[in-house]
Every structure is written in C-alpha cells, then in structure tokens.
Amino acid sequence: MKRSLLVLMCICSFLFACTEKDLYENDGNSNKGGQMDFSFQNTTEKNLSVYAQNSSGEYASNVPVSIYVENPYDENGLRKSGVTSIAYGVTDANGKLNVELSKIPNECSQLYVLTDWPGFGGMQTYELEAGGDVILRGPQSDESTIAKSKTRAVEEYSGKLINKDMNLYTYLNDLDNKGCPLKDGDLVSDVTISKELTKLVSEWYPEAKNVRDDKYLVNPEYCTDMEIKDEFGCEVWVTYIGDGGFSNANVNIRNMLCYYQYEGGHASLKQPNDSKALHKTIIFNNTNQREMPYGRRVQLLYWNGENYVKVFPKGIHIGWALIQEGYNQKEYDENSIKDVNKYRFSTFELSTVGSPKTTQGIARWSDEFGCNIVGMENREIGHRAYDGDYNDILFTVTATPVIKPDVEIPVEGDEDPSAGIIKSEVFGTLAFEDMYPYKGDWDHNDFVTDYVYTKEQDASTGEITAIVLEFKVRALGGLRESGFGIELPVKLSNIARVIGAGLETTNDAGRTVIRIKDNVREFFNNMEGLVNTYPNIDHVESSADVNMRIELKKAVADSEVSFSKFNPFIFVNGREREIHLPDYQPTIFGKVSFGVADDATNGENSFYKTNEGHAWGLDIPRMSADAEGWIYPLESVSINDAYPQYQVWVSSNGNESKTWYAHPNKEKVYAK
Length: 672
Known about the structure:
The strands form 7 sheets. Strands 9, 10, 12, 14, 15, 19 and 20 form a 7-stranded mixed sheet that branches. The chain has a 6-stranded antiparallel sheet with strand order 11-16-13-23-22-21, with no helix packed on it. The chain has 2 domains: 2-41 and 419-635, no CATH class; 157-400, no CATH class. Helices cover 8% and strands 31% of the residues. It is built from 7 helices and 34 strands. The protein is mostly beta strands.
C-alpha cells in the first residue's frame, strides 16, 4: 500500500510539474527596458598566427599545422587515440598560417600547436593569456665550420673507440655543445631539404601508423639494409630529417643513430653475439629534433680494419641502429651504449628485444628524389609506448653510385577513402528552454543534446570539403511540440548532397538550413511525457542518434565555415517559432515577434535574451568526444539553484566563474 501511494504521489508531482510548465503565463512585470549586452558564451575566440621556419631560417610554405585544446600525446609520447584538432591549416607562400579559432572551451588555458612534418621542432604549447605568435622551427644551422688541418689525411680517417662491449666507434670528434657534429668542409655539411621531400617523408612515415602487415616486420626476407653492388664501390651520405612524432615528452630524450657494416648477407648474423661484435659507427650523437639541425649531412666511412676510408667496397651491407637515450647532451650515457638491449637494429637477426622480434628500421627508395628514406622505431612490440610508426629517427641515404634496398616495404593508406582528409572538431551540449518569449522555469532541460561538429579539410590546402554533424539527445523536459534544426554558414547552392537529414530550400542564396527532426519525440520512439528529468524515474536512452554529412560541391576556406557560425535551434508549436542560442538570429523560415513578454531582443545585435540574466538556449563546451556532457538541472530546478556560480558568471559579464558549468549542486542536477 505504501509503495502504491508513493508511486501515485510521484505521478501527481510529475503531472503537476508538466502542467505548470506548459501553462506558464507572463505576469506582465517583465523588465523590457534597455538591452542585455552579455553574450552567454562559454567559449572564447582567438586569432592566431603560426609561422613555419626551416633550419636555414627561411619561412616554409605548405606546412600542415594542427591546433589542439588538449595535449594530443600521452605521458609516453604516444599520440592519443580519438583526440582531434580544433583547427587545421597549411602555411601560405610566406610561411604563415592565420587561424580564426572559435569555440575554445573556457576551461582551456593553453593550446597545443603541432606539425607532423619533421624538421620544425615538434609540438609547441601556446598560453592563451600570454598571446603572441607561434613559430614552428627546429634548431638553426650553425654557420661555423671547423677548419681542416693541413696535415690531415684525405683518404684515411682514424676512429675513436667509444664502447668496447658493443664495438662502438666514432670518427667525428668536433661537436657543438649539444652533441651535434659541426660542419668541417669535408665530411659534415648542410643540405637544403625541399618541402616536397619533407611532405613525402611525412606521408611515408605518418605519426602513429605505418606498416600494418606484420609480415614485413617479422620476416627477415623483407630486410631493407643496403648492399654495395658496384664493382668500384661507392660513397654514402646520411642526412638528418627529424622525428615525425616529437612531443613535449621527448624534449629531454637524446637517442643516437649509428650504422654498422657486414658481409655475406644478413641471414648469417646471430644475436646477441653479432649484435655486439659488429663494427658500429656513430652518425649522430643526438637526434633530438629541437637540437639537431635539420638537413645536417654526414658522409659515412668504411672501416677497413685499421682506418676509415670514404669508399665502401662491393659486397658490403650497411644497416642502422638507434641507441635509446645514448647521449646526455654533453657526454655518452654509458649504461645505454654498453647495453645491447638499448640498440634497435634494422637487421631482424640482430634484434634482442620484443615479442615477436622485428626489424626496427625500414628503408624506402624514392625515384622522384633519388634517395632512400629511412625510419627507425624506438620501441619494440609489447612495450607500453610502442606505436610502430617507424618515424622516431628519420633520415635520407644517398650514394654515388646509387644503392637501395632489394625489397620494398609498401606505403599503406592510399586505399583508405579518408586519406588526404584532416578532421577538425568541437564538442558540447545544447540545452534549450521552450517557453519563448516567456521566461519559463529556467531548468534548461526542455531539449538537451550532446553534439560533435566536424569539418573535413583537404590536407594539402586546409579547405573545407564536408561537414559532419552528430547529435545524441539526452532529455526532453518540455511538453510543447518541438522540432530541431541547424543553420550552417554554407551557401545552399554549394551543397552537393546531405546524408542523414533533409534540406529546407528557398529561393534565398544564403545559408543552408537543415531540418533535423520535425518532432523531437522521435528521438525516444515518440515517448510521451517528460524524459530523463526526474531522478526517480528510469533513465531512457535515445533510440535515434543523428549522424549527418553535408558534402560541398566546391571546397571553401576554413575561415568561411567557422564553428561559431553554426546556428542550432528548436522550433515550437509550428515551424515559424524558432528558439536560438543567445545573439543568434532566426533563419529565413522563422517568423518571430521580438521584444514581447520577457524577451529583450532588439532585432539588431541582441537576440533571445532577457534583461534578468537568462537566455533560452545555452551551449556548454566539452573538451573532447570522451568528456561527459553537461549535467543539466532536475525538472523545475532553476539553473541558478543547480549551478551556484551561474549568477556570478552572468553578473560579471563572464569575467568571473568562467567554468560555472563544471560546478553543480549535485543534489539538484540529473546525474544518471
């Protein structure tokens, strides 16, 4: 009996709240004087200039740049899964990218600016309050050159033993204060790396993905070490490119790069004996791309048993080894250089780590540029930070006459339909009141939906080719018949097709209006009553999430499709009564009489707001797709009560309590 009585009381309370909410009438005492200047925006906008500068100090064009609101790398330096940029573009002919950033969440204090192209210093952080420009650049080339001794032999070079256990040598003794070889007019020089070659390197060794078929990694038949085949031998050079995935986690990591030589083919090699015994020679003590000059070139020398010489004889094979953290900026790390398990070999048979063991260096020949492009992998399969992208050290190998691998490791991804497309995304929650132009109860749960707005951009130009909209409706706290739509800053005449929703067409050549649902109850199988606003009634999941794609006939500039110009709205009791976010205008289909009842809209620069600190729609940001959507107030609980900092935020014109939406009174919000 008590249980039945309790259920009856809940139902009565439910019906009373619904009736009261639906039949609210204006008391006639609304303050319509003046104008509510506050915008109610929970995000900020920022104009940012990003420059790309190569090691020669020249500004580089066509460099791709991504900007994030959260660090795209984890503590191990791995690219996080599912983290997308808020903006993307490429530098212009002057090496500059101007970005109009919008919808930056208020809780975001810094941005992460990144290019995956090697040679530009990796990711940088940008403090929003500090302002200024961002310059992506690696270390500048040192113009000083070590003078050659007049008595120095030009055909033979002496070597210096660095570690006996690993038979590790060097013939480059002139280093700068960061361990990088100085130009000497003989063996060490600088070359200019073209933007076309840099682009190819980034395409062949993209961050967090590369070889997807393990047979190329675990099968020794696919060894890409290089053999000298010319009868008269050849001379060989290595040019430093960079680290394709350099993040803040790598700032103090200084891996080394060395080469080794062997005869008779790789199949005869055995680990760990040959892994230790083969003669190894250091090329770069320090491959940290913020310290190692981009384009620094070193001529490799052949060890003949007594001295180094420039010509490698026929029949010699050259392989590569990365030594993990082998250098401490001013000296060798003895623990690393003597430990065979710190060496990452390109020759499968020499590998001592990983399960299964793999090659940890891949060489690919480019006919276009007449060079080999080599990528090394720092981690082994099974390591928590392994990503298998083979771009932890990137360099080119040139030779006279040419040498190249006998086998080809294919570059994967060209068959992917999304190849060449970059996505920029923002995330948030929309929360509407449906009583406009009356003030209602301000619980902001009459229509609540999470959203993801995505711009698909051409990777080579940054232009927008398509827009993707995703909505997951979470609550219906209003009883009025309502629909849902969105206006986009794209001309209707430029729409190729819309998948997942219908266009509203007119003779107007302006923006595109999409009618998502005529009746929002379809999101919940036409369920009656209030949905997901009472804590003591079972939660219901939406049965009709929205995923729509708008494809453009002609790509447009990113600045024309700012996220801040996306204009979602609901329409109530017919198509003409539109309710928008504050300061967004109705569409051409909306027929609204402004300035009546509690509405303080002036029809010029202020829309859908009262003079009492409220708006009929709120847009609450999320930092990522995985972040929880805004926790909206319970039924008939004013937002002022559910969020104690809300009124402070409004009263201060947004200067205080900027993250009010993250601090609810937990007893007054719907937290299921």
